[in-house]
Amino acid sequence: MNANRFLDRGRKTAPCTALRVAVVAALLLALTESRAEAYIGPGAGFAAASSVFGIALAMLAGMLALITAPVRAVFRWFRRRAAHARARVKRVVVLGLDGMEPKLTDRFIAEGKLPNLKRLMEQGCYHRLATTAPPLSPVAWSTFLTGSNPGKHNVFDFLTRNKHNYLPELSSVHVSSHRRTFKFLGREIPYGAPEIRGLRRGKPFWATLGDYGIFSNVIRVPITFPPERFRGVLLSAMCVPDLRGSQGTFSFYTTRKAEDVEHTGGEQIHVKRRGNVVESYLIGPPGKDGKPIRTPFRATIDDAGGTVKFKVCGKTHTLRKDEYSPWITVDFKYGLMKKVTGICEVLLLKTSPEFELYVTPIQIDPAAPAMPISHPGVYSTYLAKKQGPYATLGLAEDTWAMNEKILTDDGFLHQCVEADEEREVMFFDALDKVKEGLCVCVFDGTDRIQHMFWRYIDPKHPARAGQTEPSLQRRNAIEDLYLRNDELVGKVMAKCNDRHTLLFVISDHGFNSFRRGVDWNRWLIENGYMALKEDADPKAKYLKRVDWSKTRAYCLGLAGIWLNVKDREAQGTVEPGAEENALREELCEKLTGLTDPATGETAVKRAMDSRKIYRGPYTTEAPDLIMGYAEGYRVSWEAAVGDITGAVFHDNMKAWSGDHCIDPSLVPGVMFCNRAVEAERPRLMDIGPTALDMFGVKVPSYMDGQPLKVLEWGQRPAAPAAAATVRGGATRAAEQVGVSA
Questions:
Q1: Which stretches of 147-250 are DSSP H helices?
Q2: I want to staple 531 with a disulfide (CB 3.0 to 4.6 A). Which of 537, 547, 578, 615 is the partner?
Q3: Which residues of the chain fall below pLDDT 70?
Q4: Nearest one of 525, 517, 511, 617 to 558, comparing CA atoms
């Protein structure tokens, strides 16, 4: 596939396409207007007039697009030529290693274990990279790609709250399976596609590059779903759903009679063994009746050999204990000669005395995507044809299956390593094809493995209690990860070893231990800011026990605390303005420096007023307080989804033992570059503006980030400021929490 040629062809035909769309729109409007008399009533005259105006406007827009096309083409040509004349490089490459921690990086470099990163540092530079507040991946990567603080891109957390019912929702994308219907022979027939709407605002810097004719290849950067149009190719990442529309729902099949077991992030399906055969089903997307479509499978067990013949959709796959199957394509039929395809991997856990089988979330098939996961749509298919099936789910590594003790350490590691290996093939394909332009690829393994294996490097972590001595592989899982990343960096450096390519290796934040969780809803109750209904079901979830008429503040999500403001929340009690501001200041003062009575440690380094740390049109959409936790602390699992426990502080006993949802000054990211960069306080938001500047493109005024001072190839800084920034300036750099000075 020649992506440049594909996009060039599309751009050349744009005026004609615009005219055709205008004509078709006009015809459709005219046809629907022919029965307008059936809807005559108050305002019908305005409707008719607006329809006529709409037809005229659509046709006028089409003609103007056609007439002005030559002028716009000439303007673009001069703009591109001017940018190319100012450009200092031909190519910019950004390798993102999500969550790479500076302290571990420093240690492993000092021990001689990261020779390629050390070589990159000596060739160019190595700095701490200030992250965002809060230092969460969706927030940080949104700041990276827009060059703006969260108040301008509207992503403040993984979750936000629905203002009408206080339920949790995804913060960056709205995916709904609701479809329009029409009645035929007494039945409602659905039609149209599910609604997919991005909630992140702001323009990615690669789209600005495209305005100047510069091509970009963007692979698996978080918060790029749904994919947006620009001059380049893109494969989406975080928030891409599975085929069921969830953010990842695994299936666990077992003959054990434990049907009341509830698994977070997945479901347990009870099966029966008849002789040597187990029959059940895989669960797919909602059908026309709204119920999930099922595809049957048959598992034939060979007890002597310890294998299983797994038959689905007419194909048989041999499963061996503790070995993942290759990606399996599964068809879900939803109508006459209609089907949706997904892909999954299957892991045989046991054959006797009980049968146990794990199936990954069934993911969108990249070869035949049920919804757009790339731009252009054919790009995901191109990659699948080139390298075979690959993970498409935004969070493909199944952390909850490991938390629920269905996956072992090794079973989880397989998913992480496989996902990074798939991405490496894509990235090097991009590096080979894009000799001029931008290449960006983000690898998730650093983040996922540190989340789940931090307990092995923190001797004080409560999840270590009662564990047997970890195996060598498990004990060294994080160190092995850094060594693999160093090998990757070495391969990338070999592809970028020329003066015309600027290479960045960055992380969006660092990492720390997560030993204790804080239930802010319990704290708010104990301190008189929240009340519960007297007759509430104690098992009710998602804040359903709350008496909103007596509640002034509540917690939902990882980032912080919301105020129950009148005319903003459905059942608000806090008057907007003076009362709201006073309550915000009161809570910030009380929560900053909060101490954990069980340990005597400070749990909260600082509570931040979001109105003071963000700037932009979406600031009012942020949680009112952003919590900057101290090392070892984070919001509790229960409070994050609006549940309420009986105590403020809890030990974290899950495998998810590391995190970065703490004060941004404590978890800066890293920035390596193959050229020296003179900067005391480089920030994640500065990377995009720097790429624009290096291509000779003027940085848009809406960006908060500023171009870093990148020296010429081989040039060294006048003073050894870079080394000071890495060590002594780390805290100062990280204090820049996402807004420009």
A1: 150-153, 205-211
A2: 547
A3: 1-55, 57-58, 69, 72-79, 81, 83, 177-194, 258-260, 466-473, 719-741
A4: 517
Please answer whether residues 639 and 524 qualify as being in contact, where contact means their C-beta atoms are separated by less than 8 angstroms.
no
Radius of gyration of the chain (CA): 27
Phi, psi of 734 (to 5 degrees): -70, -20
Per-residue burial over 264-275, b if 16 or more Cβ lie within 10 Å, else e, is: ebbebbebeeee
3-state helix, strand, coil in the chain (%, to 5): 35, 25, 40
Residue entry with tokens 């070995």 = 323
pLDDT at 469: 59
Residue 522 is which amino acid? R
Alpha helices by DSSP H, 332-408: 378-387, 399-403
**Dihedral angle computed from the Cα positions of residues 674, 680, 685 and 687, in that order, rounded to the nearest 10 degrees:** -20
Closest by Cα among 289, 395, 393, 291 to 281: 291
According to DSSP, residue 130 is labeled B
d(CA 71, CA 75): 6
Helices 445-453 & 477-495, crossing angle to 10 degrees? 170
In this prediction, residue 467 carries a pLDDT of: 60
State residue 432's pLDDT score.
97
Mark residue 43 as left, alpha or beta (left: phi above 0; alpha: psi -120 to 50; beta: remaining): left
Other CB atoms within 10 Å distance of the CB of residue 77: 11
Task: Please count the residues of the chain.
Answer: 741
| Topology (CATH level 3) of domain 87-154+202-240+394-511+667-741 | Alkaline Phosphatase, subunit A (3.40.720)
C-alpha to C-alpha distance for 211 and 83, rounded to whole angstroms: 11
Strands (E), 404-559: 437-443, 501-506, 512-518, 553-555
SS3 507: coil
pLDDT confidence of residue 55: 64
Give the three-class secondary structure for 183. strand
Measured CA angle at 243 (ends 205, 447), to 5 deg = 50
CA within 13 Å, CB half, 435 = 0
The two beta strands, 625-629 and 560-563, are antiparallel
| pLDDT number for residue 545 | 95
Three-state SS for 724?
A: helix
* Among the listed residues 349, 356, 427, 353, the one whose alpha carbon sits nearest the alpha carbon of residue 390: 427
Residue extents of the structural domains in the chain: 3-35+42-83, 87-154+202-240+394-511+667-741, 515-659
Output phi, psi for 2, to 5 deg.
Answer: -100, 100
Q: Residue 31: count other Cβ atoms within 10 Å of its Cβ.
A: 9
What are the residue ranges of helices labelled H in 434-559? Answer: 445-453, 472-475, 477-495, 520-526
- The answer for residues whose C-beta is within 8 angstroms of residue 5's C-beta and 6 or more apart is none
Instruction: Scan for tokens 């999840």, then name that residue.
Output: 463
Amino acid at 477: A
State whether residue 83 is helix, strand or coil. helix
The whole-number pLDDT of residue 76 equals 66
Q: How far apart are the first and last CA of the chain?
A: 44
Long-range contact set of residues 350-355: C-beta below 8 Å, sequence gap at least 24 = 350/321, 351/301, 351/303, 351/306, 351/308, 351/321, 352/303, 354/254, 354/255, 354/256, 355/253, 355/254, 355/255, 355/271, 355/273, 355/278, 355/299, 355/301
Cis amide linkage into residue 353, ω under 30° from 0: yes
313/316 Cα distance (integer angstroms) = 8
274: its two tokens: 């008849």
Instruction: Give yes or no for a cis peptide into 226 (omega within 30° of 0).
Output: yes
pLDDT tens digit sequence for 205-223: 999 999 999 999 999 999 9
